[in-house]
Specification:
Length: 249
C-alpha cells in the first residue's frame, strides 16, 4: 500500500507545526565571588587559620572609607582554612578574629592608599583572643605568636567572653585606656610586636611597598623577631586555666 502525495504532505505539515518536547537541564546559578575581583594596584589580604578550631571573622572599616570588595559579613574560617579579601585604594579598617564574635577579640588592622602606601598591624589593645602574625614578602612585620592565655587572664585584665569549649574566648586589656602603657603581665610578651596599649608603636612598621599581605592565626605561625618570648618560653609553668563558666568573676 502506498501513501498518496497529499497524505504525506499533510503529515509533514502536522509534524512541522507540533513542538517536540525535551528535557532542558540548566546549570544551577553560581553565587558571585566578590573577593575574587581584583584590579591592578588593589590590596590583597590573605588570612590562614592555624589555630586548631574554627574561628569567627568580622569586619569593620573606618567611617567614609571603602570596605573590602563585596562588603563581607561575619563568617567562620574553618580549621586550616584560608581566605583572601581584596580592597581598593582608600581602604582602612580591621578584621576581628576569635572563637566567638566579640569586641575584645584580637584584630588585624590596616590601611591602603595605593602601591607603596599601605600599612598593617596586629592589635591586642581592646583585648586578646588568638595569636596572630602578619607578613609581607615572607617577612613578619607585625604580631606575636605567643598564646597569651597561658599567662592567665587576671587583674587588672578581665575575662570578657567564653567560648563553646567552656574556655576563655576573650580577655579585656586593662591598658586599653592607658595611651603610654605599660603592657600588663599577660600582654607583656607581645609588647612592641603587637599593639598591647594604644601607643605601642613598635608594632607598626610604617608604609609597605607590596600590595600582598598575609596573616596567620596560631602558635605555629612564624614568630615576630620583636616578640619577647617564643614557643619554648610559653611552655614554662603556666597560670591555671579557667575551665568552667562557674569560675567567671
Amino acid at each position: 500500500m502506498h501513501s498518496s502525495p497529499s497524505l504525506m504532505a499533510g503529515l509533514a505539515l502536522f509534524f512541522a507545526a507540533t513542538p517536540i518536547l525535551a528535557q532542558v537541564i540548566t546549570p544551577a546559578p553560581v553565587a558571585p565571588e566578590p573577593n575574587r575581583v581584583k584590579r591592578d594596584g588593589d590590596l590583597t589580604l590573605a588570612i590562614t587559620n592555624s589555630y586548631g578550631m574554627p574561628l569567627s571573622l568580622s569586619f569593620g572599616n573606618n567611617a567614609g572609607f571603602p570596605a573590602f570588595y563585596g562588603n563581607p559579613q561575619p563568617t567562620l574560617l574553618p580549621i586550616d582554612g584560608s581566605v583572601a579579601y581584596n580592597a581598593p585604594a582608600g581602604w582602612a579598617g580591621r578584621v576581628s578574629v576569635g572563637k566567638v564574635n566579640h569586641d575584645d577579640n584580637s584584630k588585624i588592622e590596616g590601611s591602603f592608599y595605593g602601591p607603596g602606601n599601605g600599612d598593617i598591624d596586629v592589635s591586642y589593645v581592646d583585648g586578646y583572643s588568638v595569636p596572630i602574625t602578619c607578613s609581607v614578602g615572607g617577612k613578619v612585620v607585625s604580631g606575636c605568636n605567643v598564646e597569651l592565655f597561658d599567662r592567665g587572664c587576671n587583674a587588672p585584665d578581665s575575662v570578657s567572653a567564653w567560648g563553646p569549649d567552656n574556655r576563655i574566648a576573650a580577655c579585656h586589656n586593662a591598658a586599653q585606656g592607658v595611651p603610654d602603657g605599660p603592657a600588663s603581665s599577660m600582654f607583656a610578651p607581645c609588647a612592641g610586636a603587637a599593639y598591647t596599649f594604644p601607643k605601642d608603636d613598635g608594632a607598626n612598621t610604617g608604609m609597605i611597598a607590596q600590595t600582598e599581605m598575609s596573616c596567620c592565626i596560631g602558635v605555629l605561625c612564624p614568630p615576630s623577631p620583636k616578640q619577647r618570648w617564643g614557643k619554648r618560653d610559653v611552655e614554662s609553668p603556666k597560670a591555671p586555666t579557667l575551665k568552667a563558666r562557674a569560675l567567671k568573676v
